[in-house]
Amino acid sequence: MDAIRGTASGSAPVPLSVLDLATVGSGSTATTALRTSVAIARQAEARGFHRYWVAEHHSMPGVASSSPAVILAHIAAHTDRIRLGSGGVMLPNHAPLVIAEQFGTLEAFAPGRVDLGLGRAPGTDGATAAALRRTERLHEGADEFPQQLAELTRFLDDDFPDGHPYARIHAVPGPVQGPAARPPIWLLGSSGFSARLAATLGLPFAFAHHFSAQNTIPALDLYRESFRPSAVLDAPYALIGVSALASDDEKEARRQVLTGALSMVRLRTGRPGLIPTPEEAESYEFSSMEREFVDSWLGNVVHGTPDAVRTGLDDLAKRTGADELMITANAHGGDARLRSYELIADAYGLPRT
Asked: pTM of the entire structure?
């Protein structure tokens, strides 16, 4: 089985996957959100989605996914086949050895099912990033990303050259304990930097279309044009994150996605909080500037009836040439998110396994 490329199921144009932020709705708790994450992963596995990823975010009350490795270890215990990974771990926030050990452990828990997606953004605001990295010089972490990536790769492969300061250091679990597969590395991005680096190294690339749609096609074009074959990939392979939500009723779908839009308004204006309820979002009085942002934001969220969402996803796959679509469903309640993935699976005739 290919550790990177997926296979489309049903009538889907490309493999479909899931990106989960473990969102916490107003009136709910992190415990409920993480239980929903388990339910989503199990549902995704049962309906033939290719992979399930979680993202690293910090100091955001509406998100419970600050520790991807911990969440993935729990998800691994409740699934059997679906690929599990990070979308992503923010490499400058961590020592490369720590990530190698965490994902070596995950690989031992779920052999052949683990992906290591890496980003260079902090996944939070500047003050929180400074607390995570214990430095105010945040730009240096991003600037050193290629070097950090090279170090992490050597820890995963246990192949520092003789004479290197880390030559006698081993990430465990890892190759020093015997032959074993290791998680494939993906680079994540919302601009051209990671696209070019992934292409240069011959790695798979994941683009954050769900919050940087204007850069999607330029970044994918750059990745494909710059790609150099490697031992990992002989040709480019790119997935894009897509915000999508299906509901039995078009108006209900609009009500649900508006909660995510209001949450983003608050985040962008320094007022992060729990995901508001549909009723709160409907009654909120948006300023003209906020309304403009919401209209732009929702313009990149595929939502509506199952048929409408299927058409939107088909169009997006065709327009971008993405090799895989990774769907994230942002809404207040877990039931709406679970229902959305079920409806999308039904719309494409994904098998029940």
From this structure: 0.95
